[in-house]
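Re: that chain you flagged

S.,

Sorry for the slow reply, it's been a week of failed gels. I finally had a moment to sit down with the sequence you sent. For the record, here it is as I used it:
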Amino acid sequence: MLPMCMLAQMPIAVWPGALQQASSLAGRVAESDRRPCGAATDARSKASPALQITGMEAQQAGPAPIPVQQVFATLEAALSVDNATRAAAEAQLREWEGDAAPGFIGSLLKVVAEVQAVPEEGRLMAAVVAKNAVGSSWRKTLGSREWSRVPDDEKAYVRTTAMAALLGDPSDRVALQITLLVTNIARFDVPQPWSTLLPDLIAAAAEESPVAPAAKRRALTALKHVLQALRNKKFVISTTRDARLLTEDEFEAMASGVQQQRAQLDSQCKALLAPLRQQWEGHTAALLAGGEGWQRRGAAAAAALSAARELMHVLQDFEGVEDAITAFLSELHQAAAAVAPQLLSGPLAAAAVAAAVAGGEAAAAAAAAGNPQLERWQLLGKNWERLLQVALVTMDRHTFQFAAHLPPMLQLCINAALLAMDASLVHHIRAKARVVLVRFCARALLQQLYRRDFVEGAAPEARFISDAGREAIQRYRTQLLGAAEALDALLAPAQCPALVQAIVQKYIMLSPDEVAEWENDPESFARNVDVETSPDADTPRPCGVALLECMLERADEPVATALLAMAAQQQAAPLTQENILLREGTYRAIGECFLHLRSKVDFNAWYASELRLILQSTELTGLNGSILRAGALWLLGVCGAELRAEHWGQAFGLVVAHVTHGDVVVALMAVSALTVLLSNCLEESQFVSAPSRRKRLVLEGPQAALLGTDSEEDAAGDMLAAVDAEHASHMAAVQGQTDAIIAGCFTLLPRLAEIESMVRVLQCVASAVDLLGDRLRPHLHTICSALPQVWGVISQQRQEGTGGLARLHSALISTVTHLLMRLGSAAVADPRVGELLYPLLQHATNTGSADSEPLVEDGLRLWTAVLATSEQLPPPLQEMLVQRLPPLLRRGQDTTACLKIAEGHALLGGLPAVTPLMGPLAEAITRSLAAVVTAAAQQQLALAAMLGAPKPGHLQKGLPKGLAPEQAAEGTAAAALLTLIVQLSEQAAAAAVAASGQPAELQLPAELQPAAKAAAAVAAADFGGGAVRLPSQGVALVEACLEAIGRLLFKQPGLLPVLLDGSQDAEARLLDRWVLLGGARDIVEMFMPAMGSLGRVRRHRAAVTLCSLLYADTVPLLRTPERAAQALALGIRAAREQEQFSRDQERLAEAQVPDPTHADQLVLRRLALAREDPVKAIDAREAARAAATKIASWMGEQQLRLQLQQIDPLLAEQLAALQRGEPLASAMAAVTLSGAPSGNNNGSEQGSMAAEMQPGQPAGAMS
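Prediction finished late last night. Pasting the C-alpha cells below so you have them in one place:
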C-alpha cells in the first residue's frame, strides 16, 4: 500500500513493470540528477520562454539534499508487494514529508519531469506525494508561526518545474495533480515571491499562446483553482523576535507589510480581468458561430467563466477597473441573451428533449458523444450555468456595482428561462442549470439593497446601516432604485399571474414522466416526492417552490392573489386530465407556501367544501382520482393543524381509511399524513401536560404572562381550557381509530416492495405508540396478533447492499422498543410478541453477519428494553446472553452497553444468570478498568509535562488527553457490574450460612480477582495532583470502584494490600480519596430531598466501612494519627446523620410502586437489593464508637481529641457525647455554611463535591 497521505488521491493501480524497470529507470533518473536542473532535455522547457526552468545553483547550509535516485528508489519500494519493503518505504516518505527534508520535493519534481524515463504511473505518484508534501510542510501551520526547512532555491526550482509540467506533461492525470500542487504553493507564495504565477497562467491560456490546446485548457483550470485558494488568503509576516517584545513601530511595520501584500494581490487579480474577458469573448463567439473547433472553444469558454467566477470572489472592489468590469458585465448579459434561445428553445432544445424522452437522461448523455447537435446543446448548457454563476457571485459580492446590470439579466431569466421555456425542457435540462437560475432570481428578490424602502431608509432594518453603507447607497442610488423597480415590475399585477402560472405549470405540476412513474413504479414515485423535501433537492418542484416563496417574501399580496385565483379557476373547471394535474400542482404550491398564505386561506372552509368531498367520493376512480386523493391527503398532513376540532376528527378518520387504499401512492401519502398528525398530537400532549404558567409563556409571551391583569388572567384561563379541550377531542379521535391504524399499517406492509416504504410505515406505527402510551393496553391483542406477520414480511426482504435492510430492521427495532417501554411487562410476556422479538434480537446482535453489523447498537438498546420490562428473566434471553455476549465483548465497540446488559441479567436472574460467562465478563471488566488506569497515567504525564515546560512552545507534541468521557462511562459500567456480583456473592454466602448454620467468608469468584484489583487501581489512580485531583468525568467512576472495594474490605479488612500489590502510595491515595469523597456534601442536597438521601447513603457506607477498617486495625497506613482522625471524623459525621438516615431507610422499605407491571423492573430489583444491604443495617454511631475506642488504645485519648480539634473543634465534643450515648445534633445544624472552622479543613463537608473534584484545584495536605 501507499502511505495514506498519497493513497487518498492516487487514482492508479500498481505501477506496471516498475520492479522490472527499476534499475534502468533509476539510472536514467540518476543521470538526470547529475545534470543541472535547468538543463532538462524535456521539450516542455522550450514551450514558452517565460517558463524556462532555473536550477538550484546554491544550497543553504544544513543537511545535504536527498538525492533524486534515493527518492525514486523509495517510490518504487512503496509499490512493492513485499509488506516489509513497502512499510519501510512508506515510513521513509512520511519522515521526509514531515521533516520537510531538503531536496525531497525537488527530487519528486525531477521524477515528474522525466517523461521519457518514468512511466505515467510513476510520475503520477511523484506528483501526488509532492502535492501532499507541499500542502503539509511548505510552511508550518499558522498556529505555530514556523517556516518550513525547504530551501528557497529548491522552492524556486519546484515552482518553475511545476509550471512546465502543468503545460507540457502528456498525461492529463499527472497534470491534474500538478494543478493541485501549484494551487497549494499559491496559498503561500502568491503574491510574493511567486508574482508571475497569475500572469503566466493567463498568458498560457491565450489563443495566441504557443502551448498546445490541451495546455491552454489546463492553464484556465489551474487559474480557477488558484483563485479559489486565494479567496481566504492568510497573509503571514515572519519575525525573528518574540512578538511580545516588538515595539509599536515594529508592529506598524509588520501591518504595513501585510497591507502591501494585500495591495499586490489585488493588483495582480485586477490585471487578470481584461485578458480573461477577451479570451472568454473569443471562445464564446466561436461556440455560438458553430465553426471549426467549436467543441474546444466551448469548453474553454466554460473554463474561462469558472475562472471569472472565482475572480469575482477574490476581488474586494473594482477601483481602477471600473470600465473593464462594466464592459464585462454588459457582455455577460449579451452572451446570455445569445445562448438562451439556442439552449432553451429551437431545434437544439427539441432534439435534446426527444433524446431524453426516448432513452432517459443516461441515454441522452451517451448519445451526445456521437451527435454534434446534442454535444453543442450540452456545451451551451454548461456555459449558461457558468454565466449565471458569475452573475450570482457578482451580485452577492459586489451588490452596488451589479445593480445597473440586474434589470436586463433578470428580464432575460424570467422571459427566456421561465415564461418561454417549454415545460418538458424544465425536466430534462441539467439540474445545476435549474438550481442556479432559481438561486439567481431568489437572491435578487431577497436582496435588501434592491428594495426601495431600504434604499430610501423607510425599512426598519435601515437603521442598522453604517455611515459607509449610507454613503455607498447614495453613490449608487439611481442604480439601486432601477434594480428595485425591475423587481417590483416583475411582481406587479400585470406580470405576476403569468409568472406564477408558469412556475406552477413548468416546475411544480406533475410531468408526464412522473405520471408514468406513478403508474409503473408507485413506490419509487412516492420516494422521490419525499426526497424533494430535502433542502439540497435539485429537481424542478423544490426549485419552483423556492422561487415562489421568495416572491411571497418580497411582495406577498400580488403573488398570493395570483395563486389563489388559479386555485379558484381550477375548482370551477371540469375534471379533465390536464385540469387535474394543474389543480394538483396549484394545491401543492399553496401547501408548500402555506406559512406565507395562512392569513389568506381558510383551510377549514377549503376542507369542508372540497378536500373532504374528494376523500369521501366514490366516483373518483382510476389514476385521476388517485392524484386528487393523494394531493388532498398531502394537504391534510401539511395544513392539518389548522383544522378545528369539529373537522379534525373526521379528517383523521379519512386519513386512516386511506392507509388501505388500493393505489400504493395514495396509501403511502396517507401514512405520511397520519404520521404528521400523530406527531402534532404528541406535541400538543407535551404542551397540555406542562404547568399553566409555562403554557401561558408559550401562548402569550413572557411579558403578558407575568404582568397580566385579572381580566387578562381570565382570558388566558379560557384560552388554556380551549386548548385542553381541543387536545382531548384529538386524543379521543386517535383512540377511536387505534385498531384501524395498527391493522391498516400492518396490512399495508406485505403490499410494499421497497424498504424505504416499509420504514415509513413502521415510523408511523412508532409515532402512534409514542402518542398513546398506556392507552394502547386495550389494543394489545391487535398489536400482538400482527407482529409475527410483520417479522415474516421483513425477514424475507432482500436488497443489494446492507444499508436498506439495516434501515428497515432499525426502524422495526425502534418500533418494538417503543412498544415495550410503553406497554411494559404485559407485552414482553405475550408469546406473539416473542415470535418477532427474539428472532429480531438474534438478527441484530449477530456480529458474524454483514447485514447485522449496523444494527448492533439498536439491538443492544432493544435488549435493554426487554430486560427493563421483564418481571422474570426470559429463557430465550438467557440463551442469547451465552451465545451473543462473548463475541460482542470481543468486538470491543459496545462494551458499555454489554456490561449493562449483563448487569440486567444478574438483577433478574441472580448470580447463576452470569456464572456461565464469568470468565468473559471478568476479562471485560478488567480490560475496561485497566484502560482507565492507563488514561490516568497518561493524564498525569501530560500535566507534569505542561507544568514542567519552560514555555508552551516546548510542550511535547502528541501528549495524550487523559480520561475520555466514553472511557469513564465504560469504566463506571464495569465497576457497577463488579459491585453487583460482589453483592450477589454476599447474598449467596449469607444463604449458605442460613442453610448450614456455619460461618462462611465472602468468596469472590476466582475469575473476578483481577477485576477487583483493577477497581482498586482505579480508586487509587493518580490523575495528576494526588488524591484530591480528579477529572470531572472520573468522580462517579471512582465512587463506583470504591463501593465495590468497600464491600470486599467490609468482609475481609486485610485485603487492601493484596488488591494494590503492596503499594503504600496507592493505599494512601485510596484511603485519602475515600475519606474525601465519602464526606463530600453537594449543595444540591439542601434543595432536593432525593439527592440528600443519596448523599447520606454514600457517607454512611464510607463511614461504616472505614470505621470497620479502623476497628480491625489491619491497614498500617490508618495508624497515622492524621489519617486515622480524618477517617474517624467521617464516622462522627455519619453518626450525626444516623437518625435521618434511618428514617430514609424506613421510607425506602415502605415505598410502594403504583404499577409494578409497568415500572422499570431493573430499578425495582435494585431497590430490593438496596433494602437487603447489610452495611445499611449497621448503626454508624456504634461503628464510630468502636473505631474511636480502637484508635484511643494506640494513640491515646488526649492525642485523639487534639487531632479531631485540628479538623473541627466540634468533633471532639461530639465524640465525647457519642461515647456517653447522648444524641448528636444534625449535620446541617452543626456545620455553618458561612465561615470555615479553624484548623485543617481537609475532608470537611463545606463546598460541593463537584467543586472539590474540579481539575485545577490545589491539592490539600491529605495528598
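What I noticed first: The longest helix spans residues 248-289.

Talk soon,
D.
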